[in-house]
């Protein structure tokens, strides 16, 4: 019998996105929700910083990353795109470089990498939106 391992993700704090950022992100999120079969309720919980037990979440985050240019079609992180987007919510280039160095760490799968980058960015820049 196979054991399905579900991950529990606790993302600290509410995501500090503006209405404009949410409006830009929503069509992308909706498309990825439909592709991955993740519920809107789950996404709303993540945005509020609630604990989520959903194995499809990492696939969703990778999908959003691809559609916003943060990841290539093969799942590689597009660091220059991330740098450009971070500059919109950062004080200076030193801070941007520090965030990239801290958050962009390649994991065993593209899904894991995209998800860990997402978690890290939420911690260090809660007002960051991949849709900006």
UniProtKB/TrEMBL annotation:
First and last residue of the signal peptide: 1-16
One Pfam family, short name: PBP_GOBP
UniProt cross-references to InterPro entries, sorted A to Z: PBP/GOBP, PBP_GOBP_sf
PANTHER family with a match to the protein in the record: GEO07291P1-RELATED, ODORANT BINDING PROTEIN-RELATED
Alphabetic keyword roster: Glycoprotein, Secreted, Signal
Molecular functions per Gene Ontology: odorant binding
Xref: CDD domains: PBP_GOBP
UniProt name for this protein: Odorant binding protein (Subfamily minus-C) C01
Gene: TcOBP7H
Top-level lineage group: Eukaryota
S-adenosyl-L-methionine in keyword set: no
The keyword Ion transport belongs to this UniProt entry's keyword annotation: no
Subcellular compartments: Secreted
């Amino acid at each position: 019998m196979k054991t399905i391992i579900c991950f529990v993700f606790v993302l600290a704090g509410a995501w500090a996105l503006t209405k404009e950022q949410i409006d830009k992100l929503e069509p992308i999120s909706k498309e990825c929700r439909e592709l991955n079969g993740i519920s809107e309720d789950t996404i709303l919980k993540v945005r509020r910083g609630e604990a989520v037990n959903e194995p499809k979440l990492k696939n969703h985050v990778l999908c959003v990353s691809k559609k916003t240019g943060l990841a290539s079609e093969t799942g590689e992180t597009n660091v220059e795109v991330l740098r450009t987007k971070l500059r919109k919510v950062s004080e200076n280039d030193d801070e941007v470089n520090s965030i990239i160095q801290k958050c962009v760490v390649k994991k065993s799968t593209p899904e894991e990498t995209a998800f860990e980058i997402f978690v890290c960015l939420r911690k260090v820049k809660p007002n960051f939106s991949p849709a900006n």
